Amino acid sequence: MLPKEFRVRRVRRETPDTFTVEIEAANGDQAFGFAPGQFNMLYAFGVGEIAISISGDPQAKSLMHTTRVVGTVTKGLGKLRPGDALGVRGPFGSSWPIERAAGCDVVVVAGGIGLAPLRGALYHLVSCRKELRRLVLLYGVRSPQDILYRRDLERWRNGGLQTFVTVDRATGSWLGHVGVVTSLIPHAPFDPVNAVVMVCGPEIMMRYTMLALQKRGVSEERIFLSMERNMKCAVGFCGHCQFGPEFICKDGPVFCYDRIKNWLGIREL
Amino acid sequence: MQTVEEMILKHPFWSGLNPQYFPLLQGCATSERFEAGQLIFQEGQEADHFFLIQTGQVRLYAFVPGRGSVTIQTVSAGAALGWSWLFPPYHWHFSAQANEVTELMAFDAKFLRDTSEANHDFGYELIKRVSSMLLQRLQETRLLLVDFYGFPR
To answer: H/E element holding B109?
Structure first.
């Protein structure tokens, strides 16, 4: 439960309001295993602690976390510079069902900063591309300037990821898709019967993505989504992230859709 | 290369259609190819064709003074393009341009309207499909209005 001391290696500005903080253990220990989809509690000393999904390559030596400046703690994290200290607890929670992907069409659907919790899975999936049938990314953002991980997207594309990016508002010289990410689902190249789908984004985006996927013929037990709630203790004690009978921090954040579908439409949750 | 008949049979828009209507559709359809950047139709022009996209991608746009052409939406292979041809005054509301090399099936709009008036069974099948497309576009537009990718602050 006690945070370990880490040091900032690099802070990368991804978009005007999003950044990635790359950290490594202060004692030089490189053994920090995690599974794609899990999260850490990052503690900006003197400011506070926040849950942020691990967005780096599980094989890399350093840890990466991408977040948007939305409150005091993320603002504090955004001010960190190389060499600064921060506390880390984790990794916590469930992970993407990578083991189910072999021999299947794998479809990754991301909305906005929701690509961050999926990034580790994409690293892994591209690295084992030959074991999969199709590998498809459907990614929606507000505008071209909000696209995360451009270099990764290019690399993954070369590694066999079929990438479809769509924006709400086309600006500049954008010649790609324009429209919400759900509009890509009806004609995306995958077999709904043999697909495993991983979805992450704002809850409203995920709700309508579920409808579009089901309309396409993907069954509920083949859809996985990463949920976000106000996580505090990260081990299921405090109850802040309770979602129906589940705790997002302990039982999630990655859930099979058929397990939580009944709770998604309830306002009080 | 596919014949027009094969294209009609395989296009998702006509999925489930009674095969008796295929010769009728075939008689009013042509296959068209547009190069990247080529105009398909322009705002205000007569909407005399209904298009189904075979391959490629089309952008719908409006010209906004001071901002140039603003893309409203893109439509890709497997989808239908345009509904102004079905409702008076039969003029396009927006312009359409091929984003990349695009192959379309173009159906004679007046023929489809007249045939629908004369044969309500066919007209119902057509309207069901166009309505479904309209519903999908309306829902997508509404989702744009709710800021789909905005996480709570």
So the answer is: helix B109-118
Give how many domains chain A has, as a whole number.
2
Query: Cα distance from A90 to chain B (closest Cα, Å)?
Result: 23
- The domain that holds A109 is classified in CATH as 3.40.50.80
Give the ipTM of the model, two decimals please: 0.85
- Contact assignment for A180 to B144 by CB distance below 8 Å: yes
The whole domain housing A74 covers 4-92
- In this predicted model, what pLDDT tens digit does every residue of A220-251 receive, in sequence order? 999 999 988 777 888 878 888 788 888 888 88
DSSP secondary-structure letter at A98? Answer: G
Q: Which residue of B has its CA nearest to A70?
A: B153
Tell me: the pLDDT tens digits for A119-154? 999 999 999 999 999 999 999 999 999 999 999 999
Residues A117 and A67 in one domain: no
Q: Which helix (H) or strand (E) holds A7?
A: strand A4-15
Contact flag A142-B147 (C-beta cutoff 8 Å): yes
Alpha helix segments (H runs only) across B11-152? 22-27, 109-118, 120-145
Who among B73, B146, B147 is closest to A178 (CB)? B73
